[in-house]
Amino acid sequence: MVIPVFNISIADMNLNPFSWSFRVQMLFGFLVCTALLNYAVFAQYGQLFEPCPLCIFQRVAIVAVGVVGLIGALHNPKGRFGRSAYGLLAFVAATIGAGIAGRHVWLQHLPADQVPACGPGLSYMVQIMPSYLDVVKKVLQGSGECAEVNWTLWGFSMPEWTLLCFVLLAVGALVAGFRKR
């Protein structure tokens, strides 16, 4: 089977992602981000988990990594500079996402008496605060709803899994962008 847009033959693919071409590695990163976002939407609307402001910021970071991956896969630069630029952009987006997820994990592990009070929703903050920078500062301070753990898989909360995914995406971006070809 050949995917016409990307000219990728499934039968010729090796299961080792380190041996994949730049295009396939970036496309894989995009597909991982798409799967993560699909689950986030399912968790919100199918399982009725209301995302906190930090969760929404993590989604934005996942979208950023995915968009860089898709554009990198479509462009498929042949030169080292182009590949490293896409790898670095995806790495920066994934690192920012990892920082946000790390902050979220930290809030979840605070003692109950140190958890900040619950704050207003993100849409309300965007409407009343004078600038988006003020909204970002307020969200990154965290609030009580960000400290709640209402979903776990094998003992790890959703922000902990998201942090792992961001770290893996960041490493994958560096491998895709800077591997010698």
Instruction: Supply the CATH class.
Output: Mainly Alpha
CATH topology: Bromodomain-like
Calculate the mean pLDDT score and round it. Answer: 82
Number of helices: 7
CATH homology group: DsbB-like
Proportion in β-strands: under 5%
Tally of distinct domains? 1
Unreliable stretches covering 5 or more consecutive residues: none
The CATH level-2 architecture is identified as Up-down Bundle
Number of strands: 4
Apparent shape: elongated
Helix content: 55-70%
Draw up the topology in text.
Elements: E1 2-3, E2 8-9, H1 22-45, H2 53-75, H3 80-108, H4 122-128, H5 132-141, H6 144-147, E3 152-153, E4 156-157, H7 158-178
